[in-house]
Every structure is written in C-alpha cells, then in structure tokens.
Amino acid sequence: MKKVVWGLVLLLVVLHQDVWNWDNDRLVLGFIPLTLAYHASISIAASAVWLLAATTAWPTNLEDDADATEAGQ
C-alpha cells in the first residue's frame, strides 16, 4: 500500500504543475476562476491521499515504541 500512496503523491506533484491553465480565464459555477477551482481540487485530493497514507501506510512500530516509553516512566 505504501507504493500506491507514493504513486498518488507523485501524481499530485505532477498535476500541481498546471502551466496550461495560466491564461485560462473561464469561470467555474459562474464565479470561481478555473485555475482556483483546479488548485482547490488538488488540495482536496492531497488531503484524501494524506488520509489514505495515515490510515493504511503509517508505521505501527512508532506507536508501539511510544507506548513502551510511556509505560516505562
């Protein structure tokens, strides 16, 4: 699962470079510039990838070490 998370992070890095949208002045929903809507979507996707990373790929041994340290004090 770690490879999937890293792949998604890399995809987000590539998608974040949106040089093709710089001169686009279209509006989304009639009031949001397309570039702003695009970056808002990238931000939402980044938070979803972080949630996926935290729930599936987070190393459990770090929590075990912290629990052992607290129990020893």
User: Helix/strand-derived class?
Assistant: mainly alpha
Topology as a string of helices (H) and strands (E): HEEHH
- Helix count? 3
C-alpha end-to-end distance: 35 Å
Reported for the largest beta sheet, the result is: 2 strands, antiparallel
Q: Evaluate the radius of gyration.
A: 19 Å
**What's the arrangement of strands in the largest beta sheet?**
1-2
**Which residues form runs of ≥5 with pLDDT under 50?**
none
Characterise this structure.
Keywords: Membrane, Transmembrane, Transmembrane helix. The chain crosses the membrane at residues 31-53. It comes from Rubripirellula lacrimiformis. This protein has 73 residues and is mainly α. It has a domain at 14-59. Helix content is 71%, strand content 5%. The protein has 3 helices and 2 strands. It has helices at 2-16, 34-57, 60-72, and strands at residues 27-28, 32-33. Strands 1-2 form a two-stranded antiparallel ribbon. Strand 1 (27-28) and strand 2 form a beta hairpin. The protein is elongated.
